[in-house]
Amino acid sequence: MTGLTIAEAGAKLRRKEISATDLSRAALQRIAARQAELNAFITVADEGEVLRAAAAADARLRAGTPAGPLDGIPIAVKDVIATAGLRTTAASRILDRFVPSYDATVTARLRTAGAVIVGKTNCDEFAMGSSNENSSYGPVRSPWDTTRVPGGSSGGSAVAVAADLALGSLGTDTGGSIRLPASYCGVVGMKPTYGRVSRYGVIAYASSLDQVGPFARDVTDCALLLGTLAGHDARDSTSVDLPVPDYTAALGGGAKGLRIAIPREYFVEGMQPEVERAVRSAVDTLTGLGATAAPVSLPHTEYAVSTYYVIATAEASSNLARYDGVRYGVRVGDDANLLEMYRRTRAAGFGPEVKRRIMLGTYALSSGYYDAYYLKAQKVRTLIRQDFTRVFANADVIVTPTAPTTAFRLGEKTDDPLQMYLSDIFTISINLAGLPGIVLPCGFDAAGMPIGLQIVGPPFGEEVVLRTARAFEAATEWHRRRPPEAAS
Amino acid sequence: MSASDFEAVIGLEVHAEMLTQSKIFCGCAATFGAPPNHHTCPVCLGMPGVLPALNRRVVEFAIRAGLATHCTIEPTSRWARKNYFYPDLAKGYQISQYELPICLGGHVDLVVDGTPKRVRLTRIHMEEDTGKNIHDAHGRESLVDFNRSGVPLLEIVSEPDMSSPAEAGAYLRALRALVVYLGICDGNMEEGSFRCDANVSVRTRDAKALGVKAEVKNMNSFRAVEKAIAFEIDRHIRTLEDGGTIVQETRLWDADREETRSMRSKESAHDYRYFPDPDLPPVLVSQALIDEVRRTMPELPDARRARFVEKLKLPEYDAEVLTSRRDLADYFEAVVAAQPNAKAASNWVMGDVLRLVKERKLDEALVITEWPVPAAHLGELIALIDSGAISGKIAKTVFEEMVAGGGAPRAIVEARGLLQVSDEGPILAAIEQVLAAHPDKVADFRAGKDKLLGFFVGQVMKATEGKANPPLVNRLLTAKLRGES
Questions:
Q1: What φ, ψ does residue A149 adopt, rounded to 5°?
Q2: Could you tell me the pTM of the whole model?
Q3: In a 3-state reduction of DSSP, which class is residue B156?
Q4: Is the sign of the CA dihedral A127, A133, A139, A145 positive or negative?
Q5: Chain B within 8 Å of A234 (Cβ-Cβ)?
């Protein structure tokens, strides 16, 4: 039952062929059955709470007044998103016992839409990582091959959808944290335009880059979830006050007439040949459907990773200052003086990658270095944004690979942070430019690991991105391939 | 070198807590007096994931302050994060303005010892206040109250244009009067809603460059600011005269010992790592908003003073004294509203009323609400004098009774039969009686002793129990003595 898409399950729920209670119970059982192996969840919601929410959905469905297409649908939420009454750790020891008193805006929107939140998914600590190996709660494993990483940082959310633990999930994407795990796990993942979805209640990593987005089994479900999440929020001053279109209405547009741009900088030496082949073949599929494709250049691409690691870490160094042991979370050194308490709390509470980024960011903002690092990075960010503006003057979407390789093995890159950072070379620019991007399956390598296609649109161009993705999906079968031991 | 070879250079940084109803970035009440941590929410407690949403009223207040001090209101200003760790700082950073503040330039004009003085402003910016650490006197516990966390502040930074404690004090008083007039701050120094840090340095009179400065904090009254600055000037001069050097540092004023003490040196100063706050868009101020704020601004002291002189024909000095406090000027205007004689109102307010206000220390209140007599009653009293119903002398007696709680002046006058006698009959009768009783003095007067007129007036007033209309007594008495009737 948990292997259904949201659209399928929704139809069955409304026809009363299944109940939300049965569906949620099945999801909880499935989570419990796969937890030891995959470690996709940090906290599973209390069964009583889940069943109460499901029963309320059933009552609405019985009355013929469902709250919307998500009513009664089990959804998993990344553990950096605040859920009132449900532990929210950001996968960090420092927030190990933190239970928020408030919902993030996206959480509240899910609840209003009738979705049943089944638990909080594992991720890299404070969303910092590309493999989900930086979690204080242990790494998440790929359901396709448990010796491999699911990608990060939203690994648990991708696995929850890939392994049928929930019908959809929420992730966050700061430099590729939705799209990379979607690619590695063979599911659909979307990062909306910066400002499209509220960040209120989303534990900040890098405020000018973070954006919440959905994971789903197909593009239709992705559109349904996005329609629920998107919209202006007075509590997030960076959210944009634009009407939310009916994203599902955009899905049937087909590929005919679409102008696709293929940036040459996204096909680099050393990338896995199967990845390049699959992406080029996907472009052929789209042109076969009536789209046109043209090579373009995004000349500042090579500076994206270094620009990102200055801006993101600078913002993080400030965003993570609030975890000081004073008001909530872990405190170590209660009997020591103030400075010592700060030191011990943060030394014990943060993992090595988080400390590395706090130090990098602190350095980048320091007096005497600010101009050379932070200010320079902001200028390069503008140049990167302008690259995209120029391309979109003559193109509807940009199509690229999501990562140079498919999912690698656990431990393969943990000793080499720079190699790890390069996993994000094709996703990071999209965050720096604030653009919407979707990833969906477009093939498999010889080892049977999924390959993801990235489709990027202009600001607030979610509709054309979804339309292109749906046209490709409708013409291919990749999204139907399931990992071993998928639910029946 | 002697002390007179040095001149002091003083600049002040003032933090004024704004009188908005809610905090700067959340909906919590910004008022004082609640039990600890009652005016808090996830936003002002810096809980994980929460975001700031600007209270637009704060921007309007900042524009008011900027317009009142002749600043340029910037069309675009930016929020910046000031990063440091302290338990009362919920987020580990304070949201402030740094490179692009909302107001630039401007000035405040003062009169110090009769000499006009202009103090230029560097900038005015908006920021959030921090919480408050409370140290338990009994145990080792330190507690934090976040009620103040996120209360909006205006920081008003002057140029180093002052050269004496008196100038600094005058500037501070003028600035306080201004923010109180504007209704954007209650101006309470003791409770910390109007705070001042002073940057003090000295240099030889012929020097071009500024000396090394010390920043002095922790003064909670005007007197403390003046004393702390005087102490610092003296310390700098003595140090330099003894061949020493001044180190750049932050010093704390100790009000009990009346001295400053070093808090931290420049070397150990924080690197605040300011950067633009990515959670908040730039503050955009349109000309329309500036015009709107200007239209709805309360009348400022300068304008009010000018109006008192031009419209009410008051002397400059009266206008200056009356507009020195908004509450005083309001009281005066209420007296004028009750009757038209502005100069008489001014004399009474500046004389008898202010004397009592000072005696009873009523002016220690931020806003005087308990006046010795209601403005309407004082107006009525002046009207009684001007209509000739009572004399100025009787009015003093009536005023004393009003102050003692006697109620409205007309009622007092009627109850005590103090109405002035302006009928010629009873006065003439009294004159006849007085002249008959003093035939020798009448003879002396008629022989040329003009000075005796005063004696006769006094006798007549006495005979009429002070109620006779004095000019009328004068005229009738003179005529009688000269034998004109």
A1: -80, 155
A2: 0.88
A3: strand
A4: positive
A5: yes
Give the ranges where A15-85 is alpha helix by DSSP (H): 20-38, 47-62
Query: Cβ contact (<8 Å) for B83 and A200?
Result: no
Q: Which positions in chain B touch A202 (Cβ < 8 Å)?
A: 49
A240 in contact with chain B, both atoms CB, cutoff 8 A: no
Contact A236 B50 (CB under 8 A): no
CA atoms within 13 A on the CB side of A96: 13
Contact B273 A362 (CB under 8 A): yes
Asked if A96 has any chain B CB less than 8 Å from its own CB, the reply is no
Q: Is B47–A235 a contact, with Cβ atoms under 8 angstroms apart?
A: no
Tell me whether B78 touches chain A (CB under 8 Å).
no
Whether residue A424 contacts residue A356, with contact meaning beta carbons closer than 8 Å, is answered with no
Helix, strand or coil for residue A102? coil
3-state class of A436 per DSSP?
A: coil
Query: Does residue B479 sit at the A interface (CB-CB below 8 Å)?
Result: no
**Structure confidence by residue, pLDDT tens digits, B302-344:** 889 999 999 999 999 999 899 988 899 999 999 999 999 999 9
Q: pLDDT digits over B51-78, tens only?
A: 999 999 999 999 999 999 999 999 999 9
Any idea which architecture A6-261+393-480 has in CATH?
Alpha-Beta Complex (3.90)
C-alpha torsion angle, residues A54, A214, A350, B49 (rounded to 10)? -80
Nearest beta carbon to residue B53 from set A203, A234, A365? A234
**How far away is chain B from the Cα of A44, in angstroms, using its nearest Cα?**
20
Decide if A372 touches B, using CB distance below 8 A: no
Does residue A463 come out as left (phi exceeding 0), alpha (psi in the -120 to 50 range) or beta? Answer: alpha
**Which of A24, A130, A135, A153 does the annotation list as catalytic?**
A153
Amino acid A443: pLDDT: 98
What residues have CB less than 8 Å from B248, skipping those under 6 apart?
A: B212, B213, B214, B265, B266
Q: How many CB atoms lie within 10 A of CB B152?
A: 27
Mean pLDDT of chain B: 92
Please give the Cα distance from A21 to B302 (Å, whole number). Answer: 73
Query: In this complex, is the C-beta atom of A179 within 8 Å of any C-beta atom belonging to chain B?
Result: no
Q: Which residues of chain A have pLDDT under 50?
A: 488
Q: Which of A77, A326, A339 to mutate to test the interface with B (most CBs of B within 10 A)?
A: A326
ipTM of the complex: 0.96
Domains within chain B, CATH numbers bracketed: 3-289 (no CATH), 299-416 (no CATH), 424-481 (1.10.10.410)
Q: How many residues does chain B have?
A: 485
Per-residue model confidence as pLDDT tens digits over B267-287: 667 899 999 999 999 999 999
A177, A198, A239, A429: the active-site residue:
A177
Is A153 annotated as catalytic? yes
* Residues A134, A126: Cα–Cα separation, whole Å: 9
Taking residues B424-442, report their average pLDDT: 88
| Number of Cα atoms under 13 Å in the Cβ half of residue A280 | 10
A177 noted as active-site residue: yes
Tokens representing residue B345 in the block: 């109102």
pLDDT of residue B208: 87
The DSSP string of A118-186 is EEEE--SGGG--SSS---TT----BTTBTTB---SSSHHHHHHHHTTSSSEEEEE-SSSTTHHHHHHHT
Helix (H) or strand (E) holding B127: strand B115-128
Given this model, what pLDDT does residue B485 score? Answer: 47
Alpha-carbon distance of A225 to A356, in angstroms, equals 34
Catalytic residue (one of A19, A24, A78, A154): A78
